[in-house]
Amino acid sequence: MLNLVFLTNSWLSSFNQPGLCITVAVLLHYFLLAAFTWMCLESVQFYLSLVKVFNVYVPKYILKCCIAGWGMPAIVITIVLIINKDFYGNGSHSESNPFSNFCWIQENIVFYISVVAYVFLIFLTNTAMFITVLLQIHSMKSRTQKRSRFWKR
């Protein structure tokens, strides 16, 4: 959906309908955040699978992942819309090239908080999960090598 909205964004913004442009910008923002949220959930799954191998049963795990994966971006979008729906709009008003228009976030501060900070937090979470998994794999490898040396003796 992110790709579909992104590819049709310029065409839809050429109709010069503010409501349509706000809707397209909101959808683009939502699907972008949802893609990153699901990437974060994948790293959590990676952590649970490789580090917390045993006793990891989480009741209704898929439901909880779906609520987090689709709900967290919805909360961010809702907050932005409650503050001011005009944060979304048409980025360019060039008459010579109507397809240079693009519906997106108009305020830099809102962009940095609702996109850049959000993605940065997910990047930090993914990095922490990755390092934890690497350390776990390294410790398992060294334990296996110690056991192997012991049995060879």
Automatic annotation (TrEMBL):
One of its GO terms (biological process) is adenylate cyclase-activating G protein-coupled receptor signaling pathway. GO terms for cellular component: plasma membrane. It is found in: Membrane. It holds the Pfam family 7tm_2. The chain crosses the membrane at residues 20-41, 61-83, 109-137. It comes from the Eukaryota. Residues 1-153 form the G-protein coupled receptors family 2 profile domain. One of its GO terms (molecular function) is G protein-coupled receptor activity. Keywords: Membrane, Transmembrane, Transmembrane helix. Gene3D superfamilies: Rhodopsin 7-helix transmembrane proteins. It is a multi-pass membrane protein. PANTHER family: ADHESION G-PROTEIN COUPLED RECEPTOR, ADHESION G-PROTEIN COUPLED RECEPTOR G4. This is AGRG4 protein. The lineage of its organism: Eukaryota, Metazoa, Chordata, Craniata, Vertebrata. The gene is Adgrg4.
